[in-house]
Amino acid sequence: MLFKSNGPALLPPPDDLTIPQFMLDSFHPARPVREDHSPWLIDDQSGKSYHYEQIRMRVHGLANGLTSRWHLKNDDVVCIYSPNNIEYPIAIWACHRIGAIVSGANPSYTVDELVYQLKTSRATILITHPVSLPVAREAARITGLSPSNIILLEPTSSGRQEFAFIEELATEGLTFPKSLYVEPRLRSGEGKTKIAFLSFSSGTTGSPKAVAIPHYAPISNVLQMATYQEVNQYQKPREKRRFRPGDVCIAVLPFYHIYGLVVNLHWMIFSGLSIVVVPKFNFIEMLKSIERHKITHLMLVPPQIVLLCKTFFQQPETRKYDLSRLRYCMVGAAPLSAELSLQFEKLLPNVVLAQGYGMTETSTTVTMLPSTEPRGIAGCAGRLISGTEAKVLKPDGSLAGYDEEGELMVKGPQNALRYQNNEKATKETFIDGWVRTGDEVLIKENGNVYIVDRLKEIFKVRGFQVAPAELEGHLLEHPDVADCAVIGVPDEYSGDVPLAFVTLTGDAAKRVKENPAEGDRIKASIKKHVSDVKVKYKWLEGGVEFIDAIPKNPSGKLLRRLLRDQAKAIIAKRAQASKAKL
């Protein structure tokens, strides 16, 4: 069957605007009126802020500067390789003013990884931060990009400025009496094909792919979320409105990632909130920021929720920070277990915990908690947002109905166009206007969507499906487990059996270091923790392995392929030990 959103009707999104024209130049009835004193962007540490007119002028100046020095033009690709920075959105919108395409890169990339993105996106300009400059310079050298095509978001601390930087270019650009660039004026429908971003997929199941996202898609998604959350409903009392002009949202999610880019940055600004820009996530520093800036809204990923819950319950000194202004926390990018949801609500009972679901290929949001629901249901990813359709494909190719599991397919104005220069992958994922997500879901009759797991992460034990997320949520309740990941490993009898990689809490790690035999006791305890409450085929027959840190990308998704590689070595070592005993 076909599933449709039961939320408020979506007005047709504008299909003749670029993103900065939508954000900076135009009015939309779904957009609330921002409070005059409310800045758009705030630098976390310095407190420096940019208001609307400052941003608009700065974007124009930078667009002029880029055109003057590099003759940047329509459809050129600019790669931004940097942690979050208050100048990051300025750089995005300035490039879009010219008609250029932006490709955000993970600032923790190695040289080889950045080289891959530069080559795949065919970037001609590289914008970076001084802390990322050494890797950026080497990647530029390997790809043949001239050092003169590297631009810094802010000047180096050395005082010797070898590279141009944003402040310099924006100031220089404002000295010209007129625009040096020709801003795109799109015809009706052209926004649906004019590329704004080449955002790279997470790479959890292979090499990252460049997702071609047109201007129309993020604009549509911002309007879909604004409509669904009724951010412009002034008839509601202020205290009952979930998003209000004057509220403050933290931005610890990276802007290069689609969640941080569309939801945390563009949608929150559109909704009248100020964004506190944080360069890099640090738990204690985040608590300080929440107190310092009187943060009301959080946008997080499950690992940050894990850290929040575990640290608050185990380290009482963290409770000295004032979190009383917090009212809303959205969690996305990976499933959040029911156990973690309940822990969070126990910790912060006055904060609405709202799960959402989306992906780069749907730029971004597909489901979220409706504005009519006072709080989320543990383990539920919300409901389809306005303007979104879905169908659930069962393994035999037939369409699922209510309460039947299958692969989620999504259709809506937020969908990306394709994987750039990858026809094979495009045909597998983008099918007749639908995006094939690769995620197994179940949809209830009331519209609630439950993400079962990534299809490629699900494994079978003696013919029974095992979803790693279920076991991981349970393992996190064990007092010695700080973080964990479960994968299936080959077994001659069962096909696959569950193996748990576990990061120990500080106290448990200390005990193991002082007495190695304690490690065996903890492993046995963890296994019993599962076998006491789970059906037998979900028991950890593959064992428990301690690991210093669970590998994840910055969006919070587990990099299970790396764990599978480690598991192969572990299994081989076990086999050798078994032979030696014989």
Describe this structure in words.
With 582 residues, this protein is of the alpha/beta class. Among the domains are: 134 residues, Rossmann fold (3-Layer(aba) Sandwich), CATH 3.40.50.980; 117 residues, ANL, C-terminal domain (GMP Synthetase, Chain A, domain 3, 2-Layer Sandwich). Helix content is 32%, strand content 22%. Strands 1, 19, 20, 22, 23 and 24 form a 6-stranded antiparallel beta sheet that branches. Strands 5-4-6-7-8 form a 5-stranded parallel beta sheet, with helices on both faces. The protein has a 4-stranded mixed beta sheet with strand order 3-2-12-11. Helix 3 links the parallel strand 4 and strand 5. Helix 2 packs across helix 3, helix 2 packs across helix 6 and helix 4 packs across helix 5. The longest helix has 22 residues. The radius of gyration is 24 Å and the shape is globular. 51% of the residues are buried. The mean pLDDT is 91.
Features:
582 residues; alpha/beta; Rossmann fold; GMP Synthetase, Chain A, domain 3; six-stranded antiparallel β-sheet; five-stranded parallel β-sheet; 16 helices; AMP-binding_CS; AMP-dep_synth/lig_dom; Acetyl-CoA synthetase-like protein
